[in-house]
Specification:
Two copies of one chain form a homodimer. Chain A is elongated, with a radius of gyration of 28 Å. Chain A is of the alpha/beta class and 418 residues long. In chain A, 40% of the residues lie in helices and 22% in strands. Strand 2 of chain A pairs antiparallel with strand 2 of chain B, so a sheet runs across the interface.
Chain lengths: 418, 418
């Protein structure tokens, strides 16, 4: 079987996952781990504890080569994954002696006099299945090899729900078996390119068709606020062709191919050049500094952040002129320039970025509607550059969008000298 | 139809959700929102972009009364949700003129000369379906009422993938229709109390048993970073009894019962008293100011935010003494006090909050391990108060946790005079 042709599904069980009490991170985590092996998840399903597991499992085993089930291996009455598996496959269950011994040992090591009898059902296994040891909890996992039951050729992994138990078991027990099933010798090719300053429609009108024409290439977009990720999957040649095509059209907007965020790239590029940054924020209210300082090592880059929300702060801290404020208002090209230059002077940094705008919901006018923003970049020995845009969104999206604009101005100056 | 008997499924589309590039939070968020309405999700499925949507949708509409589909409404070739819906239901598609006008307006407002032609397909709608306006993006949503297609009686909602677009549309367009479908007259009795400064174990050790004894009360906890939400569901009497019980035990830690965040409460309480705030942040790097300025109307409260990441910034901007820094280091009670008092003086505000700590992963020592933090509160005419804590977490969790500590100090001072 070729890796790409192995059909894998994930079935997450647990009522708490559907009521919003617990965020389901299994699919996300396993998707990443499987992709590293060149494998892909074809479908992920979440069902509540209880009978719904049977139905979902019956459907999945008909569609897939391998099914990974999480949760429902505990000792209580709503833990029914083991039983559902045996029933769906038409196999008897048997108590695994080794599993009982291991569980007794688990309780003894934690100072219990004896194993609670309720835990005993955790040692039940469909006949012919493998018990997967669990070093981090009581519930052993189970592996049902393909064609063990008459009902399907699908391989089934039953893994415990808690991430601290699931993840080690996945690595140690499930991954090697999946590799063997898929006949994988090394990992496939998958890359994600991150862009800032272009949207999905720039691709749709530009090179989407050309990408489609590349043989053996699979690609997809994921649009975020002020950011676009392009995912490429395929052979080496296909990916190289796609990269070349994209590089020609969008070289300046390209940010990273290793998952690095815009702020990570800004910190890395500035740190490697020994450059220091200061921020002067009005409408973003500290978001830009916050994003930069989310990056480990950012203390080598960011020296000062000024959140000058009030006009007195702009005047007192950054030296914006009262007369400029009176003449053109706080949301203006002139004030933005004075903020950037003031932050540069006050901090002694190499670069200073300034933003002033109207985040809403209040504060807009006909002349300066909500969404109006000025972003300025000051640098020692260079003329200050100010751009303006109007992007009326809700308050938080506006802040995020403006912080993208600002960080991207810094990136383009540092990386491309723009 | 009774609320509890309405079968709801969620179908998330997007290859990025299965490859682990994007964490799927839709199910979690919608599960919570639906539960507030007394509705429950019976199954959640994730499929990649493309043909798999057809198959999954065909299955879901046969099983459910309402299907909520997310993603795949963009302008590119892999956005196929609209088409899949029309095909599964056997309905023609038609261009919605109002939707085209709205999209043109969206691009015009953002300074584009014209709408890219590729976006035009976003205005295609199955005949007879409702267009759901999208104030935060180009992709309109779609609502297909029950029994519109011959293939099923299921109501279908197509919502955009980005959370900033999906969430408002869910509230404004999907929730009222779901309520109508389920015959729900009002939102039912459900209340969520938010606490800061206590954990789940404070409840478990304290009043959990007493809550269990209240007849007709269903309750649950949701622990977040530095925050605990207690969800109460039941009749008026049960909820009142639970509230009284909780108020007796945790009155100082109680933050809100209307979903208001800690920063919203801080802004509201300070604004109503005409109080002004300044922040001086080292290890949180702007997060506190950012959280405060996420709140509409915060410009009435926050005047100055200082992100003094470098020692020179602490000295130059806040007047921290060089000798204090040399003697006890930047992460110390003394420097924290000088930062808070410096921010108070530089800003002229009524209150100033200061934080200095070690976020990691670098910078820890035996004496001051990673996670060490000092939080100081200065107020005109009062003695400055400094607390210290050590909570070694990863960088982002640490920042969040410290910002909670700081904002809660402000809240307790303003609301309780502590």
């Amino acid at each position: 079987m070729e890796a790409a042709s192995v059909r894998i599904e994930i079935l997450n069980t647990g009522t708490e996952l559907l009521l919003g009490s617990t965020l389901n991170t299994h699919g996300h985590w396993m998707g990443q781990e499987l992709l590293k092996m060149g494998l892909r998840v074809q479908r992920q399903t979440t069902v509540p504890d209880g009978e719904a597991i049977h139905e979902a499992m019956r459907e999945s085993v008909m569609r897939s080569d391998a099914l990974i089930v999480t949760g429902g291996l505990g000792p209580t009455s709503d833990d029914l994954t083991r039983e559902a598996t045996a029933e769906v496959l038409g196999i008897e269950m048997i108590e695994d002696e080794q599993a009982v011994r291991t569980m007794r040992e688990f309780f003894r090591a934690r100072g219990y006099a004896a194993m609670p009898e309720g835990n005993r059902k955790q040692a039940l296994v469909p006949v012919g299945a493998d018990v997967l040891p669990n070093a981090n909890g009581t519930a052993p996992g189970i592996y049902v090899p393909p064609r063990l039951g008459q009902a399907s050729a699908c391989a089934i992994f039953l893994l415990p729900g808690p991430p601290s138990e699931l993840r080690p078991m996945f690595h140690e027990e499930a991954a090697p078996r999946l590799r063997a099933l898929a006949g994988i010798e090394d990992a496939g090719e998958a890359v994600e390119l991150k862009f800032v300053g272009i949207g999905e429609s720039s691709f749709a009108d530009g090179i989407d068709e050309d990408l489609q024409a590349i043989e053996g290439l699979e690609f997809g977009y994921c649009a975020r606020l002020g950011e676009l990720d392009l995912r490429l999957i395929g052979g080496n040649d296909a990916i190289t062709a796609a990269r070349d095509l994209v590089a020609k059209s969008f070289s300046k907007q390209y940010v990273s191919d290793d998952g690095s965020s815009l702020e990570e790239v800004v910190v890395r590029e500035m740190a490697s050049r020994g450059l220091k940054l200061a921020t002067a924020e009005s409408c973003t209210g500290g978001l830009i500094a916050n994003r930069v300082t989310n990056v480990p090592g950012s203390s080598a880059v960011l020296t000062h952040g000024f959140v000058t929300y009030a006009n007195e702060a702009k005047v007192g801290v950054l030296g914006v002129k009262e007369e400029t404020l009176a003449k053109v208002g706080a949301v203006s090209e002139e004030v933005c320039r004075e903020m950037a230059e003031g932050a540069l002077a006050a901090s002694g940094s190499d670069l200073a970025i300034a933003v002033t705008g109207i985040a809403g919901p209040g504060g807009g006018s006909d002349e300066k509607p909500i969404g109006t923003v000025f972003v300025g970049l000051a640098q020692k020995g260079k003329e200050t550059f100010v751009l303006t845009k109007c992007d009326p969104r809700n308050r938080l999206s506006f802040k995020q969008q403006v912080s993208q604009l600002a960080l991207d101005l810094v990136r383009r100056r540092v990386v491309h000298g723009e």
